[in-house]
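Data availability (excerpt). The following record was deposited with the supplementary files.
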Amino acid sequence: MSDLYHNRVLELAASIPHLGTLDGAEASVLKVSRVCGSTVNVEIILDAAGDHIKAIAVDPKACALGQAATAILAEYAVGASVDEVIAARNAMKKMLKEGGPPPEGRFWELRHLQPVADYPPRHTSTLLAFEAAVAAIERARVARGLATAIAG
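Predicted structure:
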């Protein structure tokens, strides 16, 4: 288990930016792990075109792995395109569930969570923040009439 909770994971879990709520949030999504009870709430505001995240707030009640993933999302989400967030979520799923490579680009620090792949009961809590972010993006875009459901 020590490979899961190495120093960088613990540093990330201890320093989550954009904690709390977001005034004027377009969407707020709470995701819950039925395996361990971890939760992450993500609130977002998209830019005028609905293509990039303008603001984000997070509220994790999760293990160190879920908090680390939430910290990475919150740190790099502002200014990220919708496509970047979806691609990071999809790459992270493949990394954890199929042995794929870690996400690259803006969310490159998710590589620190690669050892979680060997612990399937931890997958859900590690994915919560990105699952909530993608669902929040979808809700905001649908509310604006910009899109239908995002494939998952």
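Summary of structural features: Residues 69 and 126 are 6 Å apart (CA to CA).
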